[in-house]
Write a structure and sequence with these properties.
Number of helices: 8
Shape: globular
CATH superfamily of the largest domain: HUPs
Distance between the termini: 67 Å
Strand content: 25-35%
CATH topology of the largest domain: Rossmann fold
Structural class: alpha/beta
Largest sheet: 7 strands, parallel
CATH architecture of the largest domain: 3-Layer(aba) Sandwich
Number of domains: 2
Radius of gyration: 22 Å
Strand order of the largest sheet: 7-11-6-1-4-5-12
Length: about 350
């Protein structure tokens, strides 16, 4: 077990672009390291990605572990797992964090299994605290509190791993605040030569197609989201129209996506996207905890619902009890009148 309390953040990158969740985790790691007294290390894998090391430093890394190899140019499960696992086994960091993306959800369990440590998936918060074990009557200090919804989102669970290192977690994109870079920061770049074996290369990338999404929910300052209260596609068109008038993006609850009103890339919530807009309008959304987990940090929340006891009203700053099919046309009319 390691004596250091260093925090590693896996830097997910694709074609020279670092995923936002990795930069968000660097900011959170800085906060956690302040409590532990350890160093924030960015674990960067790829080929010819030296310029990204400085980006990681500017976002909070004190040290960049740069694993450079031609076979790591594109993400593939086996060579990446080999390179990361070997380094984790060798150095045993105190904490190791991954984004809860398709890459992170593939890579982190492989590393955790090989290193024989636990892994908490899809965390929405991370904190440092102590744990008094009733089983062995021992106080464990400075543990990573891995906080996430559980039992279908009906409770919030806090998970600790007192005995093995590293403490590993994947974290949902958008739940940590992305801090602006500090280009004056300095750090150490340490180059690591990985050992990639032939058995790690049995799968080859023959072709690659990248689909660019036209939905930019996470970056939009205004989101108008619809839920099951939109009883038909015509009702959902009102939500689209209101978003257009406000210059915002259209969001949705899982119920609206399941009903076929809109595509899954618009879904906000625990199994969708986490957003923090200046204004979030929830129209016809009851406000189950799974949905609130993806939008309750919005600066201003307006909720429209026919049920005065709808859970969404617990987080709303402004509450409108009414049918969205009646309320939204009035809002659109007022906004257009004001714009004249």
């Amino acid at each position: 077990m390691t004596d250091t309390k260093n925090i590693w953040v896996f830097i997910e990158q694709d074609e020279g672009q670092i995923a936002d969740v990795s930069l968000e985790l660097l900011a959170k790691a800085q906060e956690l390291a302040g409590s532990l007294g350890g160093e924030v290390c960015a674990l960067l894998c790829g080929h010819d990605v030296d310029e990204l090391a400085q980006t990681a430093i500017s976002h909070g890394a004190g040290r960049v572990l740069l694993i450079d190899h031609p076979e790591l140019a594109l993400y593939r499960s086996l060579p990446y797992a080999r390179a990361v696992t070997d380094l984790v086994r060798d150095r045993r960091p105190y904490i190791c964090l991954f984004g809860a993306t398709s890459v992170g959800r593939d890579l982190a369990p492989r590393v955790a299994s090989a290193a024989r440590v636990g892994l908490t998936a899809d965390c929405t918060d991370l904190q440092i605290g102590d744990y008094n074990s009733k089983k062995d009557k021992q106080l464990y200090k400075d543990l990573l509190y891995q906080i996430r919804p559980a039992f279908g989102g009906n409770i919030i669970a806090t998970i600790v791993n007192p005995r093995t290192r590293p403490q590993m977690a994947t974290v949902r994109e958008g739940v940590m605040r992305l801090q602006p870079p500090d280009d004056t920061r300095e750090g150490v770049i340490e180059r690591i030569e990985p050992v990639i074996e032939d058995q790690d290369l049995v799968l080859q990338v023959l072709s690659r197609q990248v689909r660019q999404s036209t939905v930019h929910l996470k970056d939009s300052p205004i989101v108008v989201a619809g839920g099951a209260g939109a009883s038909c596609k015509e009702d959902f068109e009102l939500i689209r129209e209101l978003a257009h008038v406000l210059g915002g993006e259209v969001g949705a609850s899982r119920a609206a996506v399941d009903a076929g009103f809109i595509s899954p890339e618009h879904q906000v919530g625990q199994t969708g996207i986490t957003v923090r807009p200046r204004l979030y309008i929830a129209a016809g959304i009851s406000g189950a905890i799974q949905h609130r987990a993806g939008m309750d940090q919005s600066n201003k929340i307006i909720a429209i619902n026919t049920d005065p006891n709808a859970p969404i009203f617990q987080v709303a700053h402004y509450k409108i009890v009414g049918d969205l099919a009646e309320v939204i046309p009035l809002l659109i009319s007022a906004l257009r009148e004001k714009a004249k």
